[in-house]
Design goal:
Elements lengths: L12 H24 L19 E3 H14 L2 H28 L29 H5 L2 E3 L5 E3 L1 H7 L11 H15 L2 H7 L5 E3 H8 L6 H5 L6
Antiparallel strand pairs: 1-4, 2-3
Helix pairs in contact: 1-6, 1-7, 3-8
The structure holds iron/sulfur cluster (2 copies).
């Protein structure tokens, strides 16, 4: 798997296999979620959760995004995305990202944060490789009880919300971790572990310009740990 579109990525074979496993598990979980209840299937197109939210994602999620954009998008389109990400980071800044993260999802952004991967037609340019939070936001709940619902799905559930079994975010994370531990060798797990650290999509794009060899420099920061 060439993650850089020709440039040497210097990624270990174990990490590449780990990414394949990760994506297979996330795809299967996402498919199972949508098969469990038709009301959980997002309308197409819909970018309602791609504008006000600032998702924190793992380095592994972003590795998948890098693979996708190098394989599917032209250099010109990728450069436009990087410009949008840099403009957003300049406007929003690290402090705002951390403030929203600390607010536990209840913080109101100071500015309109539009994901740099959204195109002019409100389509996600990395849809098939979209990060894990993008797949489960809007139709799940947190273990502590609070709903992780968007207005569209909440409206569909209406008064049935209290009686509807919503998938639990933390259970998805645990199932993902268990599946990786089951399917990867100890050496592959060692390669993947540093990529479990997180950052935001705009910061990752703006600082790596989709060069996967730079991911750990962003995700490895202790201020995001
Ligand atoms: S989670 Fe909600 S806002 Fe996001 S794409 Fe699905 S329906 Fe739209
Ligand atoms: S990566 Fe795609 S799905 Fe996720 S927030 Fe950005 S545009 Fe939306």
């Amino acid at each position: 798997m060439d993650l850089t579109g020709g440039r040497s990525a210097n990624l270990s074979p174990g990490l590449v296999r780990a990414l394949d496993q990760f994506r297979a598990v996330v795809d299967a979980q996402s498919d199972a979620l949508e098969a469990s209840d038709a009301r959980f299937v997002c309308p197409i197109p819909c970018s309602g959760c791609c504008t006000p939210n600032l998702f924190f994602i793992t380095g592994l999620d972003f590795l998948g995004v890098c693979h996708h954009v190098h394989r599917s998008l032209s250099e010109e389109v990728r450069a436009d995305i990087v410009l949008r990400a840099r403009a957003l980071v300049a406007e929003c800044g690290l402090e705002e990202a951390l403030r929203l993260d600390g607010a536990g999802g209840d913080g109101e952004p100071n500015i309109v944060q539009r994901c740099p991967l959204l195109d002019a037609s409100e389509r996600c340019l990395a849809y098939v490789a979209r990060p894990t939070p993008c797949r489960f936001f809007g139709r799940s709940r947190f273990q502590a009880g609070e709903a992780n619902l968007c207005a569209i799905i909440a409206g569909r559930l209406g008064s049935e919300l209290a009686h509807t079994a919503l998938p639990v975010v933390e259970q998805y994370s645990r199932a993902l971790a268990d599946a990786l531990a089951r399917n990867l060798t100890a050496e592959e797990m060692e390669a993947v572990e540093p990529f479990i650290a997180v950052s935001t999509l705009p910061i990752l794009i703006s600082e790596t310009a989709f060069d996967p060899t730079l991911i750990l420099e962003v995700c490895g920061r202790t201020d995001f740990a």
